[in-house]
Specification:
Elements: H1 2-10, H2 22-50, H3 56-61, H4 66-83, H5 90-117, H6 119-142, H7 151-171, H8 174-200, H9 212-234
Helix pairs in contact: 2-5, 2-9, 4-5, 5-6, 5-9, 6-8, 6-9, 7-8, 8-9
Length: 237
Amino acid sequence: MNDIENHYGDDFWAGNSKMENPRLGFVRKVYGILAAQLTLTVVVCAFAMATSESGFGFFLNTHYWLTWVWLAISICSIIPLICFSREVPLNYTLLATFTLAEALLVAQVCAIYAANDGGMIVLTAAIMTLGITLSLTLYACTTKSDFTMSGGILFVLLTAFILFGLFAWFSGSRIMNTLYCTLGVILYGIYLIYDTQLLIGGKRHSLSMDDYILGAVMLYIDIIGIFLYVLELLSKK
């Protein structure tokens, strides 16, 4: 099975007159789900920012504690989602719950930043995130470097990053916060390359073609992470 997946991964972008690469169908499904997740997130964020002075956006702006509610729902839904990612239709129900909670969380963050720094900062962060995502995805698909071998190292870096984030938060230093956000963009960028290579196959490790929900969630979290840290870096307040 691994030999078959590696063969298709090596010729992922090559045409085949006799049969279609089955991995390509898997990738299309993952990116289709990811597109639906991002579309929902963008729509909710746009609505929150459009109603920042009254209505839904204003409600989010004046109830900061709701961010903890969305975060709790995200965590409580993603844990069973990982465990039951292949169980239809439970996986889609959990995916919808997780995505909606994340969309509301990001929407509240965007509404808060837009109220303090203006809506242009959110748009700028979104454009920068798009550029970073496309560039890193292209790199992951074309490079000969195998990032799927770096799972253990990435976990260590993530643990260190979380601990550094707690230190930066308690210190209250703007410089420390800027450094923390910069490291966040870099770390999530590396994870985006790592997850993309797991998705397309052809490397030492790859996702099973039954893990389309898991693949979409991994990429979605990477992109949202990059966006939030870029947004924080652009903030003046």
